[in-house]
Request: fold
Amino acid sequence: MKRTAAIFTGAGEVKTRTEELQKLKKNEVLIKVHASLISPGTEMAGVKAKREEPTPKEEDKNFGYANAGEIIQIKGDAKDLKVGMRVAAMGGGEDHGAHHATYANVPVNMVVPIPDNVTYPQAAYACLGATSLQAVRRADIKLGEYGIVLGQGIVGNLAAQLSQINGAHVLGWEGFESRIAIAKKCGIKNIVNFRSAKPIEESKEFGAPYGIDFAIMAFGGSGTEAFNSVKECMKISQDGHIMGNVVLVGGCMVEIGGGAHTGNLNIKISSRTGPGYHDSEYEYGKDYPDAFVQFTTQRNLREIIALISEKRLLVDPMTTHTLPLEEVGKAADLLINSPDKAMGIVLEMSH
Reply:
């Protein structure tokens, strides 16, 4: 069986090719893919790096790790998954994963059912939604707290929405007016343009009289200047120490000083979608004990799909472009060259 799949080359070229679909492994499902979502952050960072420092002799690699479609075949124990079921899937294995492709073999614990009122393009946001949810869990947000979310790309937007759902008062920081408009359409009421306004002053005013309890940094590149700005916004104890939780979820690089510079901030890193992703035994069906590992990758995926279904988490405004799979190269160029215009790009598959 053949499929059309997106790849990227050692020179950073993104295109499609026709290739033989690998045989199903035990505890995998074969998905007929209808939609996938490109990650503007992690995924495109790899492409951009290859364009800046090409390695032409490197083998072409499959592209993508978030899609949605219907199960057409199962091998082994698929638990609650059944042939014909509509599902969201994630995971970026080289031959087996939720690629930008017409068909995909995906391990069972990286797949979750979707209800009829969730479309395939909406369900394709589940992976980045789980990434954002993991960051919100790491921030340990309590109802009534005040927080700032730096960056209103897909992960930052979703993190801000999820923080609000969790009962927090949220102020987003963003430099592109287009993303500010998208954030407002997603119900994020408070946004400051850090390029044209004074985000530190506005954050202090927003959190008054209590102060900012948490910050989530959801962007790539150099983040030290932004982190130093965050420090000026956080709540301060009576004895003069900066307090609160700061979570780094994007690919930002931050220089952090010790206590003399950073006070008593809790600095946390949030990686991926929750426990289980990249543990092959978990991905292929071996669950962690629920009592000890509460929010696994699969559970986070399920929660995101439920929130989308309930219309409490809005993803449609983030889709700036919908393109056929065959135009994946155009999609990559848009995300790299026009971040002020392109954010959520959904690829659709024809069968």
Remarks:
- The chain has a mean pLDDT of 96.
- Residues 126-139 form the longest helix (14 residues).
- The longest strand covers residues 28-37.
- Residues 255 and 311 are 39 Å apart (CA to CA).
